[in-house]
Structure formats: structure tokens, C-alpha cells
Amino acid sequence: MSPFVRNLFLLFGVASIAVMLLTFDVDYETLVANIGRAGLYFPAVLGVWVIVYAFNARAFQIIVNSGSHERHLSYRHAYKLTVSGFAFSYTTPFGFGGGPYRVMELSSYIGTCHAISSVALYSMMHILSHFCLWSFAALLFVILHTELMTPLLWALLGGFVVVVLAVFVGFAFFYRKGVIERLIVPLLYVPVLRRWSRKFYESHLDQIRQIDEGIALLHSMPRAFWASLTAEFVARLVNSLEYWFILLSLGVSLGLSDAIFILAFSSLMGNLLFFFPMQLGAREGGLLLILGLLHLSAPGMGVLTGLYTRVRETVWVLIGVALVKVGNKQLMR
């Protein structure tokens, strides 16, 4: 990536941080008081994400290094791209910003097509790990809290199982055949877009198919595929410790299984409303619903939990944006 474009990403990140800080819906004194109330739990919340990003970076490194190119991405640089990429994803609608940033950093080493394949594969793996988490949490909830299952919950569970099975079948197909061309072809028949999309499709067909070949390549490497998926899934499980520490700081006694349920449900709500930058309001609503179902409560729990996660996100966005200008020499060997 050229220094000019990297500086544009940096400026966008700084502007996003400014907006985040200016739109906090609590005053400075309240914020300091609540963070102080959390005590040593809040550094633990921040520290959880050191481990989460460590597993994310390992999954990303495995995928990038499994490509048909001859370059090697070090773990240190994979960690940098992971943290910075998620910083831009947090601050853009649809989580759009992280992918282009990673592609542009990698493309000067392995070419644009290989870079897009690697980033698309990681995005698919990240999404698939969410479905694995939701499925695991649903199964665990049924086993541990059968008494809480109402006819409505059983019906919702049945619908969820159908959706998950369809998603897994779809992912299996896309991992074997690629996904980019199959996303573009339907646009050829949309009245408003078909002229532009046909021109784009015909002029870039070779590159599109090269990208899809790179995506399908991982399917022929089961060891790399399962290693990267396992790393992403473990990252999701470690992520549940964030809610465990936050609720412990509020005086709520809960087990690690409850923390997994809370993470899974709140992230499900956040992803259903993925078009909100930083998923504003979506996760908090899901959090309140699952806490009520588990009969866990404390004064101001929903607001304070949302506050802690927003502060944690802001800190890590700051770190990710700062890393944009760090360690860019010899990104890949």
C-alpha cells in the first residue's frame, strides 16, 4: 500500500475515533466513575481481546500462507493486520472497512487476486465461526436449561436449525466452487445494475475466476481449513470471558456457560443488524433479552455492560489505527 493511501486510512481512523468519543451518551465524570467501579476487571476485559485477536491472527495467517503464492506472512504482521482490520470494520457500516485495508496491504506482495482470495476466505471463516458459536450455544442451552424451553423457544430453535443447516450447505458449496463469480452473476439480471455489472464481469472475468480458484484452494487443504476454523471458534469462546468479567464486576454471579449464552445471543442480534456502525444498540438489546431469560439482573446492568464494551472497542480501535503506520516494512517474506 502506498504511503498516501495508508495516510488516508489513518485519517479516516482518527476521524472515526473522534466521532465515537463525541457521540458517547455519558458524560466524562460518569464514565470515569463506572470504569473505576469496575476495578481490575476492566483491564481484564481489555486483556481478553489480546487473546481473541491472537487466535484471529493465527486463523488469518494460516489462510494467507495456504495460498498458491510463494510469500510467507509472519504471525507478528498477521496480528497487526488483524487488529487494524477489525478497527476499520468496527467503524464502518456493514463492517466494510477492514477488508479493503487488508487487501491493499497484502496486494503489493502477493498480487490483488491472491490478496482478495485470502481476505474473502478469512471473512467467510469468521462468519462460519459465528454460526459454529451460535450452534454450540444453542445446544448447550438446551442441555443445561431444558426447563426454560417454552413452545416458542422450541419453534425458534427448529427454525434456527434449518437456517444453520442451509448456511453450512451453502458454505460447503462456496468453499468448493468459489464465491465471487456467483455473487456477481445475479447482478447481470438486475435492471438498474446489469449494464455496469456485465461490463465489469466481462472485463475482469479472468481475475474473478483466479480469485475463486484461490478461495477453492483452501478446500483442498483440510488440515489448514480446520486449523483456521478451530482458531476462529476458540477466539469466539475466549470472547465470552469479556461478559464474564463485566458481569462479575457488577456483582452478578454466573458461570462460563452463561457467559457463552450471553455472547452468542448478543452477537447474533448484533449481526442481524450488521449495518449499524459498531452495532449500536443491537447488542445491548440482545444482551437484555438473554439476561432476562437467564434471570440475571443488577441495577443498570444493560447500560453498564454496553458502556464497558464500547470503551473496550474504542481502546482497541485506537490501537488498531495506530498500528496502520507501524511495521509496514517487509510485511511478507
Question: Could you explain the architecture of this structure?
Answer:
76% of the residues lie in helices and 0% in strands. The chain has one domain. The chain has 333 residues and is mostly helical. The longest helix has 33 residues, at 112-144. Helix 6 packs across helix 11 (222-249) and helix 6 (112-144) packs across helix 12.
Compute the number of structural domains.
1
Structural class: mainly alpha
Number of strands: 0
C-alpha end-to-end distance = 16 Å
Helix content: over 70%
Give the number of helices.
Answer: 14
Topology as H/E string? HHHHHHHHHHHHHH
The fraction of residues assigned to DSSP E strands is under 5%
Q: Report on the biggest sheet.
A: none
Give the low-confidence spans: 275-279
Q: Give the overall form.
A: globular
State Rg: 21 Å
Which whole number gives the mean pLDDT?
80
Which SSEs are present, and which pair or pack?
Elements: H1 3-22, H2 28-38, H3 41-65, H4 75-90, H5 98-110, H6 112-144, H7 151-177, H8 180-184, H9 194-203, H10 205-217, H11 222-249, H12 256-272, H13 282-293, H14 301-322
Helix pairs in contact: 1-14, 3-4, 3-6, 3-11, 3-14, 4-5, 4-14, 5-6, 6-7, 6-10, 6-11, 6-12, 7-10, 11-12, 11-14, 12-13, 13-14
Record keyword descriptors for this entry:
333 residues, mainly alpha, 14 helices, 0% strand
Brief write-up:
This protein is 76% helix and 0% strand. The chain has 14 helices and no strands.
